[in-house]
Q: What sequence folds into this?
């Protein structure tokens, strides 16, 4: 009983940690620019695919990972410069469509640059499972969960302790006021894309040894990450992480205890249920009507 | 606006057409080169292009060059149907080798049947050719055969109680249904069943439940793509010691790479192509399989898979039929495809007939076991 | 031109011309098929535009209703011997009922929250269609009985071109009727200010459900047509990617522009056919084109061109 | 004349802060009843309570003798209460005349079926609604701009458009939240004239306004609100002279010195 509960929980936390990181990436860009970036999943793909190919080209794994993160950041900045910035002031829906177009383009490029096969990375600490109270867990799961926790911590510290981070927060709170006090909001938005891309790529590197990767893994991750973002309350980093973990756990427990066939549906039903009770998500602030 | 678009489309089509010699024999291929089945569609596309080039370099078919028109349906049945219409109406192909997935093949089938253009599908499910449609053929072994081959092997090893975990994609779902139809025939009881989505990344919850079923002797995993690789890894992770059977849907070296260590000991039914190297020299299939393997691996730098092999078989059956038909008449070609006898392909010996539009016997399947990260014959 | 487009009879005539004129010259059933697909998509997109473009309520699960309409004409005749012609309205009623039941609770949500709730609905429909093999044939889909009128089986793309073209014209006229009515004004009003609409006496919850139901019925009819045109359905029709494609068509063509819906649908249906020329670069090109259009025509193709035209005149 | 709108003991708190606390007043048909007070005194919140945008924690609102507390804005609209907004709530994507036509929503047939079919009765009704809306636009001086998109009109025009839209509902009582804020003197004078005219037609008007000149010249009675509570109520002359009022305003800036704060 306990063993399977633990097994399900670890499965849910591992998958959830990735959703959480994708949702965190969403949150950072959303806060800085009100853009829901549906290309966020592509950053995860770039992280995984570039590391795979860099590793195959003979680079050691840490260097390959670094190359992947840098590649994702470059793509992130390019996306911002070439697609988001020129459309500044467009309505949120239009910006979302632009990011969907961006996702298309990135995926299209990846399928030409790399290939259409699935790939894996070796587990950072081998593949031999660890037994905890009857549950078998691959060591990479700890890398994923621990890595996600570290990334969340680093992001929190960045926002709370650095001037740059505070500038991003200020822009998020009030773009106009931030401009007035001399913050270059365009730069801040660019920075948020850079940061989100890096987080996405790191997530991709961490998770590829478990989940495998291919040029088109981004779509589903973006969908799940978006759901987690909204469940968490849209704009709250804590919410994004909580939303991701809850979504992952829901899927794992649904698969384990109810039906594996409809586990995704159950996860979505839980989410819709939560939203009906809390229309602004778990950590969202209610917007009082100002008229 | 609309007119401009059609105008553009029309001129583009003309452009494509004018580049080719009117004397050429046009054959079409609608493949899932992108999308969830791209790992099937990509080697299929490469194989077709490779061999069409080779045939043309050697002087073509009956002195005429082959011209291959490929469209990518992205795995979407509706798109596939549009491209099928385009091949028939615009490109006026004499036949088509393609249809990567069962879904796309089923969507395209009626279009070719209506237009009386032969269509050789590369997808697995038995429903494509059963009931027989006059103009629709296929080259891969059916999923029912895969089930039978696996159950035969289980029976031989004395397993009667098994568990099943299948993908909810078309391939997994279809094969699962076939397995559930034929298991009783082999005296095999399915004790527990689980499923996973096409893009799932962790199947430990399902396998944990499956593991808990008492008395199970083996597990079968109908599915294709990366799912089975993850199942295999999770299987090992959870320390399940029962024999694991995969399907012909993972018959590529990539599966072994992805599953790693965990792949060792896994059995699956597949074409002899994968074990071409270790076939006895007396095996009549050996030269064909070896030649294809060598050519594919040299040209693409990727390990050979049976998927590309099915495209090879389809193309060669078609070329043979065109030669026998003595020209580019679709109806005659169809009749000749149906008359294919004793054709040695990568999947086995094809003997088509009016009632069998696939033409492979169960014996064409080999039961393989993965040993030390490589294919080996199980018996 | 601006005034010109604003007049409903003239814009209807324009749409009719766009259907009839190509219909007279198109060379083969391939073109008729593409045309039919444009009209069918446009019909669904007009419905979604009423919801998204006019009323400002986003749905990321609208393909779910396309799926319901498509499978209604697949399942009812095959399993219950319902005549095909009756299966289409049955699908409409079913879609309307589903939309009504789920619309009440989820339309209280706003913006991205609504997007996720509708997304969940779409995922749910696609999952049911893919998994209930006994009913739906599973992921590989099922074949659809052809429509028979006076003993004649309607299967040619050319026939469907004219049928779907007619339906599009009717759908366009109905949407115009709606928009010019009190309900139409109310649904457009709540896009800008729900509170002002309520103060003016608009029952916002009711109007939202009404337009949600109407847009679901449009999608359902489109789904039925698609299934009958193809003679085969797969759960892809209800998938998330289809929902996203529909939203993209609305935004590309122009939110709040019925004519834009047709252009948006035409664009995304025809473009991939033209882009096959670029083989593996197709997706890259498509992505870049979408970005460029949204940057340079950010209100959508039709409204932006319309505005530019007006500016030039004045 | 009996009271058309009776507000008694109404109050609401946000996070422990009593934004409106125990406010009681009543307004009669044909009367201009003004509510003034320094910034943040709770005037708009009071409007939101009366018009159903917020739900009051306590107290009651009666419309023509019937309790309407807790009703939604659309229900109140059907009972004859309409309002304008301090921050414009215009349907920017619709034309000016459509904005006003929407105002007649409660008087129109609401059957979506008939609307979809485009029946002649709907067309007739549309023509009627449009004619009435045009008459109202005429009244507020916007008839020439009827088919312009509302988003392209100036601020002062939109203020008048909002009044026209509210009037289209044929309300018995009209709450106007700073109708002249941000308008130039000419526009203010026009709105001034308009309000008097509306009151003369028998509609009860409750007015929140910063422009003291406007308030003092047209109001029948004035209620002064500070910190969410009633400071005093009386005729304009008395209010203007009351030391408590002067003090309250001095604490928060002189009345009329911040006419364009919106």
A:
């Amino acid at each position: 009983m306990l063993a399977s509960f633990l097994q399900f929980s670890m499965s849910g936390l591992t998958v959830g940690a990735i959703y959480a990181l994708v949702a965190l990436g969403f949150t950072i860009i959303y806060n800085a620019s009100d853009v829901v970036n549906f290309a966020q999943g592509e950053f995860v793909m770039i992280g995984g695919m570039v590391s795979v190919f860099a590793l195959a080209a003979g680079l050691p794994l840490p260097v390959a990972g670094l190359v992947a993160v840098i590649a994702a950041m470059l793509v992130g900045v390019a996306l911002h410069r070439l697609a988001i910035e020129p459309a500044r002031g467009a309505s949120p829906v239009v910006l979302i469509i632009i990011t969907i177009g961006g996702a298309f383009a990135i995926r299209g490029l990846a399928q030409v640059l790399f290939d259409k096969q699935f790939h894996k990375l070796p587990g950072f600490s081998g593949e031999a499972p660890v037994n905890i109270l009857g549950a078998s867990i691959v060591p990479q799961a700890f890398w994923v969960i621990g890595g996600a926790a570290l990334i969340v911590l680093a992001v929190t510290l960045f926002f709370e302790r650095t001037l740059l981070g505070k500038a991003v927060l200020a822009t998020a709170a009030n773009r106009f006021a931030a401009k007035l006090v001399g913050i270059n909001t365009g730069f801040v938005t660019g920075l948020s894309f850079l940061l989100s891309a890096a987080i996405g790529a790191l997530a991709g590197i961490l998770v590829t040894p478990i989940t495998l990767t291919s040029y088109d893994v981004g779509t589903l991750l973006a969908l799940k990450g978006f759901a987690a973002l909204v469940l968490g309350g849209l704009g709250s980093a804590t919410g994004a992480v909580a939303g991701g973990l809850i979504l992952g756990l829901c899927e794992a427990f649904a698969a384990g205890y109810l039906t594996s066939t409809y586990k995704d549906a159950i996860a979505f039903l839980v989410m819709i249920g939560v939203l009906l009770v809390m229309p602004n998500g778990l950590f969202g602030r209610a917007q009082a009507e100002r008229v | 606006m609309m007119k401009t678009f059609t105008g553009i489309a029309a001129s583009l089509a003309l452009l494509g057409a004018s580049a080719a010699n009117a004397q050429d024999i046009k054959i079409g291929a609608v493949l899932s080169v992108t999308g969830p089945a791209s790992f099937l569609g990509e080697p299929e596309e490469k194989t077709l292009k490779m061999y069409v080039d080779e045939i043309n370099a050697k002087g073509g078919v009956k002195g005429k060059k082959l011209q291959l028109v490929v469209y990518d349906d992205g795995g979407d049945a509706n798109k596939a149907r549009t491209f099928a219409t385009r091949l028939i109406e615009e490109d006026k192909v004499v036949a088509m080798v393609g249809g990567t997935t069962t879904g796309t093949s089923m969507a395209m089938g009626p279009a070719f049947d209506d237009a009386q253009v032969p269509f050789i599908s590369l997808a697995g499910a038995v429903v494509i050719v059963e009931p027989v449609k006059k103009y629709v053929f296929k080259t891969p072994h059916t999923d029912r055969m895969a089930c039978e081959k696996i159950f035969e092997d289980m029976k031989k090893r004395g397993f009667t109680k098994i568990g099943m975990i299948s993908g909810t994609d078309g391939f997994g779902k279809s094969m699962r249904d076939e397995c559930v139809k034929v298991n009783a025939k082999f005296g095999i009881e399915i004790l527990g069943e689980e499923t996973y989505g096409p893009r799932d990344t962790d199947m430990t919850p399902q396998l944990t439940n499956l593991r808990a079923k008492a008395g199970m002797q083996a597990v079968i995993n109908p599915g294709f793509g990366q799912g089975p690789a993850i199942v295999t890894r999770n299987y090992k992770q959870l320390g399940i010691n029962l024999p694991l059977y995969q399907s012909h849907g993972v018959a590529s070296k990539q599966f072994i790479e992805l599953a790693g260590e965990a792949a060792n000991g896994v059995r699956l039914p597949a074409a002899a192509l994968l074990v071409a190297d270790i076939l006895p020299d007396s095996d009549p299939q050996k030269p064909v399989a070896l030649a294809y393997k060598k050519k594919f691996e040299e040209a693409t730098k990727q390990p050979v898979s049976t998927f590309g092999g099915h495209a090879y078989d389809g193309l060669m059956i078609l070329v043979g039929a065109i030669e026998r038909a003595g020209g580019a008449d679709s109806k005659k070609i169809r009749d000749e495809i149906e008359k294919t006898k004793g054709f040695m392909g990568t999947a086995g010996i094809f003997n088509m007939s009016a009632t069998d539009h696939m033409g492979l016997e169960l014996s064409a399947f080999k039961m393989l076991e993965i040993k030390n990260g490589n294919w080996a014959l199980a018996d | 031109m601006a005034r010109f487009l604003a007049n409903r009879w003239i814009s209807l005539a324009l749409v009719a011309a766009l259907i009839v004129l190509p219909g007279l010259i198109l060379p083969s059933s391939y073109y008729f098929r593409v045309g039919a697909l444009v009209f069918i998509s446009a019909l669904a997109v007009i419905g979604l535009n009423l919801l998204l473009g006019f009323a400002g309520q986003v749905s990321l699960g609208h393909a779910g209703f396309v799926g319901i309409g498509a499978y209604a004409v697949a399942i009812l005749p095959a399993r219950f011997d319902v005549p095909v012609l009756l299966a289409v309205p049955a699908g409409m009623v079913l879609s309307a009922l589903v939309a009504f039941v789920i619309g009440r609770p989820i339309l209280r949500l706003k913006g991205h929250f609504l997007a996720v709730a509708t997304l969940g609905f779409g995922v749910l429909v696609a999952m049911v269609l893919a998994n209930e093999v006994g009913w739906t044939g599973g992921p590989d889909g099922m074949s659809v009985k052809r429509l028979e009128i006076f003993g004649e089986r309607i299967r040619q793309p050319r026939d469907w071109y004219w049928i779907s073209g007619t339906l599009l014209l009717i759908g366009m006229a109905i949407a115009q009727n709606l928009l010019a009515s009190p309900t139409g004004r109310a649904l457009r009003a709540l896009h800008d200010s729900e509170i002002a609409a309520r103060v003016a006496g608009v029952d916002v919850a009711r109007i939202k459900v009404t337009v949600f139901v109407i847009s679901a019925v449009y999608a359902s009819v489109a789904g039925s047509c698609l299934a009958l045109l193809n003679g085969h359905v797969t759960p892809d029709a209800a998938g998330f990617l289809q929902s996203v494609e529909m939203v993209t068509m609305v935004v590309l063509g122009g939110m709040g522009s019925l004519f834009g819906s047709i252009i948006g649908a035409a664009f995304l249906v025809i473009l991939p056919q033209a882009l096959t020329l670029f083989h593996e670069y197709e997706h890259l090109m498509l992505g870049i084109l979408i970005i460029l259009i949204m940057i340079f025509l950010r209100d959508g193709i039709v409204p932006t061109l319309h505005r530019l035209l007006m500016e030039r005149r004045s | 004349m009996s009271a058309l709108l009776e507000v008694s003991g109404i109050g609401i708190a946000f996070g422990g802060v009593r934004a409106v606390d125990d406010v009681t007043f009543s307004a009669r048909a044909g009367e201009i009843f003004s509510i003034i007070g320094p910034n943040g005194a709770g005037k708009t919140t009071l409007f939101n309570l009366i018009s159903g945008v917020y739900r009051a924690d306590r107290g009651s609102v009666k419309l023509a003798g019937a309790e309407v507390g807790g009703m939604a804005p659309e229900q109140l609209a059907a009972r004859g209460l309409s309002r304008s907004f301090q921050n414009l709530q215009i349907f920017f994507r619709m034309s000016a005349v459509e904005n006003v036509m929407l105002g007649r929503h409660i008087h129109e047939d609401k059957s979506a079926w008939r609307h979809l079919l485009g029946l002649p009765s709907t067309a007739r009704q549309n023509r009627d609604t449009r004619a009435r809306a045009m008459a109202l636009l005429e009244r507020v001086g916007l008839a020439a701009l009827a088919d312009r998109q509302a988003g392209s009109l100036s601020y002062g025009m939109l203020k008048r458009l909002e009044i026209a839209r509210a009037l289209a509902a044929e309300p018995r009582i009209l709450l106007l939240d700073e109708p002249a804020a941000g308008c130039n003197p000419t526009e203010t004078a026009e709105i001034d004239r308009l309000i008097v005219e509306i009151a003369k037609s028998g509609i009860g008007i409750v007015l929140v306004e910063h422009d003291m000149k406007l308030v003092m010249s047209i109001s029948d009675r004035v209620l002064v609100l500070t910190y969410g509570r009633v400071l005093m109520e009386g005729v304009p002359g008395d209010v203007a002279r009351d030391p408590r009022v002067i003090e309250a305003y001095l604490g928060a800036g002189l009345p009329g010195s911040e006419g364009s704060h919106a």
User: Anything to note?
Assistant: The radius of gyration of chain C is 19 Å.
